[in-house]
Write a structure and sequence with these properties.
The chain is of the alpha/beta class. The chain is globular. The structure holds glycinamide ribonucleotide (GAR).
Length: about 200
């Protein structure tokens, strides 16, 4: 079975959906660690509750990006990591890590990429823009992480209808519900495509 490490910065409800999918047998993988940049992330409590090792590390603690990457990579090696999942992780992944895990980093984003992707579009910012633009549809996307922010190949997408009565908060809730289904399902399919 493959070893997955999840990166999360906040609540970690997507992280929880992976924990649940593993225990329900819908995701056949081991979640071997959680990495967060935020020591008050609720995701940490979720990890502790399920006995998943955690590592708190932020690029801000380092003088250079390569030093930061080296420390993260040595933790990933210690955990025998096969696949990284960015589940609500709000820091940039340095190029050294992207190169070491070529095609082995997936990200979930709360929009129908390529719409509302890139710098400045994360979490509530995305939903506020969808409401402002009166889009009739939104959704979530899982993509492979490449050096171009939010631009790697899309491997899963789920659409929701935006009602006239929706606010950014109600839309966020609708999309998040879909994320919790899309992310484990997409990872399960993606794992089958990975060699060894
Ligand atoms: C999710 O909606 C996720 O798609 C989004 O942050 C939220 C985290 O929720 N990620 C991004 O915006 C990344 N650009 P969670 O902590 O409850 O999983």
């Amino acid at each position: 079975m493959k070893n997955i490490v999840v990166f999360a910065s906040g609540s970690g409800s997507n992280f929880q959906s992976l924990i649940n999918a593993v225990s329900d047998g819908k995701l056949t993988a081991n979640i071997v660690g959680l990495i967060t940049n935020n020591r008050s992330a609720f995701a940490l409590e979720r990890a502790q509750k399920h006995g998943i090792p955690t590592f708190i590390i932020s690029p801000d603690q380092f003088n250079s990006e390569p030093d930061y990457s080296k420390t993260v990579l040595s933790k990933l090696e210690e955990w025998n990591t096969d696949l990284l999942i960015l589940a609500g992780y709000l820091k940039k992944i340095p190029i050294e890590i992207i190169k070491s895990f070529d095609n082995r980093i997936l990200n979930i984003h709360p929009s129908l990429l390529p719409k509302y992707g890139g710098k400045g579009f994360y979490g509530s910012k995305v939903h506020e823009a969808v409401i402002r633009n009166k889009d009739s549809q939104s959704g979530c996307t899982v993509h492979v992480v490449t050096a171009e922010y939010d631009e790697g190949p899309v491997i899963g997408q789920s659409t929701v209808q935006v009602a006239d009565s929706d606010t950014a908060a109600s839309l966020a809730e609708k999309v998040l519900e879909r994320e919790h289904i899309l992310l484990p399902e997409t990872i399960q399919k993606y794992l089958k495509t990975l060699k060894n």
